[in-house]
Amino acid sequence: MYQSYRDRAAFLFVYVREAHPTDEWRMPVNEEEGVLFAQPKTLEARHDVARQCCNKLSLTMPTVVDSIDNRVDGLYAAWPERIFIVDREGRIAYAGGQGPFGFKPAEAEAWLKKNLR
Fold it and tell me: Residue 55 above 80 pLDDT?
C-alpha cells in the first residue's frame, strides 16, 4: 500500500508497545518466527525493538516510536495494530478496527483508491 500510494499520501508507521513480549503474553508463533522480545521498559529499549522490527519486516515507510507512557496507543487504541487515514484537514477519515481481527489493510487501501485521485 505504501509503495502504491506514497506519491499521493503521507504514511507513518507508529511502533507501539510489544504485542506478545516474552515477559507477558507469549505466543508460540513468536517463538517459531524468532520474535522474542521482553516488553521494553525504557524509550531507548523500545527504539531498539522497533528498529529490529522494521529490519525484520523490511519496512521502508517512515517510522516513529510511541512514548514509553504509551500516549499514542492510549489516544488511538492502536495496540496491537491499527490503521488510520487522516484527511487533509487533519480529521480521521478512516479508522480501521483493532488487530488482529479488525486489522484489514485491504479496507484502508480501498479507501485510498476511492478517495485519492
Answer: yes
